[in-house]
Specification:
Elements lengths: L6 H17 L4 H7 L4 H21 L6 H11 L1 E9 L11 H19 L4 H8 L3 H5 L4 E3 L6 H8 L6 E6 L2 E8 L5 H35 L8 H9 L3
Antiparallel strand pairs: 1-2, 1-4, 3-4
Length: about 240
């Protein structure tokens, strides 16, 4: 598509590459060997983000309406409340003793039964939760993929609206209730406005990826998956 880098952009890429090398504190060659990569492979990985920027400029921005964004919110976000009974010392973050962890488990199981049997969940949260966020977010958490620990997300995904579950994560025991995003229009609007910036970034990035794959098909490009872990490592240790 005729995308080329000028000298300023080449220097920016070179500086970016140096950041990657420096991040290994002299162990860059070892990193290459461990991941079966060459220095040229790293150059290719790094150049991708710069090519993507240029490609996005060339394709131009696609406009998304508020309705598009609200549809994304409905399809990709959840809402949930929870009680956290921690298995760590809240001051030191150290694991509690086995006896204390067993007590935490029993307390969480008791609260889970109370919630299932109809006791006011908001009251149970206020009186028992050790997560300051659950006390501050009285309408619950609005979240999408990978914003919560896996056990919490999987627990929510296993529920229908209004149902409860009990899961354990590295933080402790979570008594969770899944709630409808659109329980009221006011709640839906609040959650949407709270997450609107993240939604805009996600929908634009996903739209760009879709357009790239259309070009891949159009030009008959054959792609090959390489070591994704190595690519992620390079990306994490640079920009």
């Amino acid at each position: 598509m005729g995308i080329e880098f000028d000298e300023d952009k080449k220097k920016e890429i070179a500086d970016y590459k140096q950041q990657v090398v420096d991040s290994y504190s002299g162990g860059y060659e070892d990193f290459l060997k461990e991941n079966n990569l060459s220095d040229a492979d790293v150059d290719t990985i790094i150049s991708v983000s710069f090519y993507a920027e240029k490609l996005q400029e060339q394709l131009g921005d696609k406009e998304y309406t508020d309705e598009d964004k609200k549809a994304y919110f409905r399809d990709h976000y959840r809402r949930a409340k929870h009680i956290l009974i921690s298995t760590k010392d809240m001051q030191t973050n150290k694991e509690l003793s086995k006896d204390e962890q067993e007590e935490a488990k029993k307390k969480a199981e008791d609260l889970f039964e109370k919630a299932k049997n109809g006791e006011n969940f908001d009251t149970l949260i206020m009186e028992n939760s050790q997560d300051p966020g659950s006390l501050a977010n009285t309408d619950g958490y609005f979240f999408t993929d990978n914003e919560m620990v896996k056990e919490f997300q999987d627990g929510v995904d296993s529920l229908q609206n209004g149902e409860f579950t009990l899961v354990k994560s590295d933080f402790g025991y979570h008594v969770i209730q899944r709630l409808a995003l659109d329980e009221t229009q006011e709640l839906f609007d609040k959650g949407f406005e709270e997450k609107k910036s993240d939604i805009e970034n996600s929908i634009e990035n996903n739209g760009f990826k879709d357009r790239v794959y259309e070009l891949v098909d159009q030009y008959g490009i054959v792609t090959e998956i390489v070591d994704q872990k190595a690519i992620d490592t390079v990306a994490k240790n640079s920009k």
